[in-house]
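Structure tokens please, single chain.
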Amino acid sequence: MAHSYKFSVIQARPDAMRGERVNVGVAIATPDGLDVRLTELRKLLHVTGHKWDEIAEAYREALTKSNASLLLIDRESIKRDPMQSEVFVLGRPGEIHARSREEYEKAVRKILSTFVEKPSLSRKEKQQKINTEISAMLRQVGVLGERGQGLDEGKVIPKFVVSKDKEIVADFAYKPNGLKVVSTLELRGMPSGAHSKACEKGATLYFAKQRFGSDVKPLGVYAVTSEQLVMFKGEIEILTSFAEGNSFNWLDPTDRQKFKAALY
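Here you go.
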């Protein structure tokens, strides 16, 4: 016989004024109490730039000890429940059915994968993320080149070919007032080191100077959270070395402004 379980997705709202919400977990009402799973706290790290583990753990403990029946009531009652903290809130109740523990776990995993977890990005997609963000910034100020345009047209050229024979492509290049070549390194969400990728990105800058002359100004742009700086210290140093010290953290507002000033 299948048992029914009420559940509610746990949402986080780190800034009530902005009103932004992200799904970070799920709470399921079981005969033994609430089964609380906060599996995506990293979303808060990406949104705010700092960890929420202690606050989340305190909320999880309090929620686990609360009355499971709160998930069985209507949405308006949930809004008035004292367990609705300033940061964490429960979403609209849903229901799953399971005849065994295995089916229960399978149903919970489906909830998490459907409503909570971020799709895994390939290494290529992760790299494209920083490039997409930089392109959006360049487009906004009107300096991003379109397909078919060249360096002599005064625009920042994405996917600039450094060497066709060696298949070396820089992420961006800009020629006014001297050629500037940009290599980007996406480190957000990387579970482990990216030493080989950092070397590849650095080598692109090296070959750009070899082909176009020593006057080329190399620029390295990486994206890493403050919590990951130590983890990726080696990769950042590699890129910085090839960029001759001209490296910038895309996630640091001050560095971002410095990069814009150095590029155009």
